[in-house]
Specification:
Blueprint lengths: L1 H104 L8 E8 L8 E5 L10 E3 L4 E8 L3 E6 L8 E7 L2 E11 L4 E5 L12 E4 L11 E9 L8 E6 L8 E5 L3
Antiparallel strand pairs: 1-2, 1-12, 2-5, 3-4, 3-12, 4-5, 6-7, 6-9, 7-8, 8-11, 9-10, 10-11
């Protein structure tokens, strides 16, 4: 009886094992792929949803890094551009000074006592009235005339071993400089007086003649005071105010020289 029971138990266990094995095989072949697909699809979608913000953040970080790199490069380029512009301004300034100096040195007013000097001081409050020039080792005499490359701009009023003070024609003060006006074959003599800011012209009077003069007639220094050099260009005639008395006759003169932008000037003195 015991033997029979053991045989039945063995048969049941074997059958159960075969059934379980069959079910496992059936699950793996038929159910597992389907179940795996059911589980995998939501997980894949969830993974895609979860990974999208990280991808956006990563892409944003990459763009930010690119922007920072571009900003840094742009800043460097701006610095180089400013440096280049500054160097270019310095080069242009030197070229302008060299051109101005070359033109001054090319002038010849028939005296050995002429030389180019640098302007070392100019006050904005008296810009059109005066300036200070460097004497260097040269002796500059009072009443020496001072010119730009275009024409007369002023006269030395005081001088020392290191510098000299120049009073400009445009100061408005009475200059009393002897001049001559050349109109083709006619020449009249008079005195240069003061600058009139409203008309931006110099006034000349005290002429030796009432002879008519044309507009645009040229005006030069005459040197008739015995202290200044003759034939330095001053300007051209732009108007008249005639009078019966030739000494009270007024002639208006537009200056050739512009004193606003000067670095060097020419000092011209008697020998």
């Amino acid at each position: 009886m015991k033997k029979l029971n053991l045989s039945r138990l063995f048969f049941l266990l074997t059958s159960l094992a075969l059934l379980v094995l069959t079910l496992v095989l059936l699950f793996r072949v038929a159910v597992s792929p389907y179940l795996s697909m059911i589980i995998r699809n939501p997980v894949t979608k969830m993974d895609a949803i979860m990974s999208k913000p990280f991808a956006v953040i990563k892409e944003g970080a990459k763009e930010l890094d690119g922007l920072m790199s571009a900003f840094s490069e742009n800043k460097h380029l701006k610095k180089e551009l400013r440096s280049y512009k500054l160097e270019q301004l310095q080069v242009d300034k030197l070229k302008s000074e060299n051109r101005e100096l070359k033109e001054l040195l090319g002038l010849n007013y028939g005296t050995d006592n002429q030389f180019a000097v640098r302007i070392i001081s100019r006050n904005p409050y008296s810009w059109n009235k005066s300036l200070v020039i460097d004497s260097g080792k040269r002796e500059i005499k009072e009443k020496s005339l001072v010119t730009s490359e275009l024409g007369l701009i002023g006269r030395v009023t005081t001088a020392s071993q290191s510098s000299a003070h120049v009073e400009l024609l445009t100061s408005g003060k009475n200059i009393d400089l002897p001049i001559k006006i050349v109109d083709k074959d006619k020449v009249i003599y008079g005195n240069l007086k003061a600058f009139k800011s409203e008309s931006k012209t110099m006034v000349a009077s005290e002429f030796n003649s009432n002879e008519s003069i044309s507009l645009d007639a040229k005006v030069y220094t005459s040197g008739l005071d015995g202290e200044t050099v003759a034939d330095i260009p001053i300007g051209k005639v732009t108007g008249f105010k005639n009078a019966a008395d030739k000494l009270k006759r007024h002639i208006f003169i537009k200056l050739y020289a512009d004193t606003d932008n000067l670095d060097y000037v020419l000092v011209v003195g008697k020998e």
